[in-house]
User: Fold this.
Amino acid sequence: MPMRDLDDLRRAVAREDAIARVVIASTRGSTPRAAGAAMLVWPDGQSGSIGGGRLEHAAAGAARALLAEGAGTRVLRQALGPALGQCCGGAVVLVIERFDDHRVEEAAEALTHLGVWARRIEPGADRAPRMAWQGADAAISWSEGWLIERLPPRYPVVIHGAGHVGRALADMLAPLPDLAVTLADSRPEMLRDLPASITASDHPLRALGDAQDSAAHIIVTHDHALDLELCHQLLHRPFARAGLIGSATKWARFRQRLAALGHSDAQISRISCPIGDPNLGKHPQAIALGVAAALLKEPGIRAADRRRTA
Assistant:
């Protein structure tokens, strides 16, 4: 739950009036999660995770104590060793901040207009220090008592079709902070009750046209004619990767039809079909699991995950 996802923060504050956000500001050595991982805590609940176990339990307790005291911020420096009952061997710096409506809007204002939010958490220099970010798109940096977060790019994924496989895949990808997922289907009833992080589109072809050139496209509609048209239109524009649900027989027919429409073998081969991992089976969740695993191996997503590691 990185700072870029302000909607989660707003919803939690609207529901609870005030919440505490715990973020891993910095790491050293082996740790369960990378810098930037965060969770939200309120008196009788929490969401997100900084890695679970004794570390998360202690951090949640400290966050609730901060809320009870009405304090603004707190910093925890924790070695992940025997004293905590963990054997990772590394260490983390946790920043705990209290958020109410005013604080959320302060963050939103900075991130929206500047793309970065710098605030002094501990006494120190009067201005934020100059520092080297961990890569050009680093999401978080901690130095001299200053916490600085900014909005890194998210990897766009467009799922065409909200049937059993499309919805299972959307639900599986929804919690992943490095992805910007769009689920497209012309049937409005299929787009109800989506996770808050999923963008809905009522027109798969329009969603394809509106997508960034760096998007991944997963074609899993209920209509073979629509599947073919999506593949045809996709091959006329840039995209990062594409997958089509179907059997080897379906793909052989599609290849012939796409060739007749003027696409070369090299172009057509950029679309993968079938999708998923056949070893996992044909259950919708099993197919979705295989597709999600392949997506998470994409270089852009792996790079984003590395950027959050301090």
User: Anything to note?
Assistant: DSSP finds ten helices and 14 strands in the chain. The two ends are 17 Å apart (CA to CA). Residues 132-137, 304-310 have pLDDT under 50 and may be disordered. The CA atoms of residues 172 and 292 lie 7 Å apart.
